[in-house]
Amino acid sequence: MTLGVNIDHIAVLREARKINDPDPLMALAICAQSGADQITIHLREDRRHIHDEDARRIVAASPLPVNLECAIEPSIIDIVCALRPHRATLVPEKREEVTTEGGLDVTGNYQSILNAITKLNEHEIEVSLFIDPTREAIEASERLGVQWVELHTGSYANLYAMRHSALPHTHHAIKSLNLPRRDLDNLLENAYGALVDAANYARSLGLKVAAGHGLNYQNISPIVNIDTIEELNIGQSIIARSVFTGLATAVSDMKALCQR
Ligand code: PXP
User: Fold this and answer.
1) Which of 72, 81, 108, 176 is 20 to 30 A from 102, alpha carbon to alpha carbon?
2) What's the 10 CA to ligand 1 centre distance in angstroms?
3) Domain that holds residue 69
4) Which residues are catalytic?
């Protein structure tokens, strides 16, 4: 299974001081030498971490294919077309969110997504849609003629953290659920089952399948066992670990866990 390393959080650290250090560009060679297969970045509309100049330098210098996440806004799509990354992953964006909290509403935004895909494909950029693991979203993605879908693993990851973590706080989104532990086994099983079903269904329709969001060194192994998923995109947990181990070890440890 291939590993895309999302390096946005290096830019998050830089933006905490609004200086030039650490430079996300420095991660490219380390990721490539440590077993990563792809670099993933998110050019958000508010530019809260990766800036246009970062994206330009990363696409130009990366020894690995670059997967650029972006919203379906025409002005952003124009920028992505000019940058020419290997792939664009279309994601929903809300300014107030801490991170991308759900998949795209593929049926509700059908025409705007189609316009974005057409334009990106014309610029020889393959397209992935970041979707919730539902048959409805997959069928709409297939109708849109997209090359990839990326399944949102956030529900699975949140429930996994609640079920297995003894820490008093695990994730801002799950604290409010306040569920009894016995309900968590079922919910976690359902969230995992939805990913298995969605991945198998998407693959049966000829789509390539990636997955990501909230994956870490603890919860990754059941996801690696879903053999219709070809690629994982992981950011937060790798960059968090790199603070203690260095980026090379954090990436190579995660890559080892991606082996089937
Ligand atoms: N995939 C997509 C489409 C995302 O938006 C994100 C978060 O930016 C990730 C993967 C990585 O998520 P995390 O940082 O939780 O590993």
Assistant:
1) 81
2) 14
3) 2-257
4) 42, 69, 213
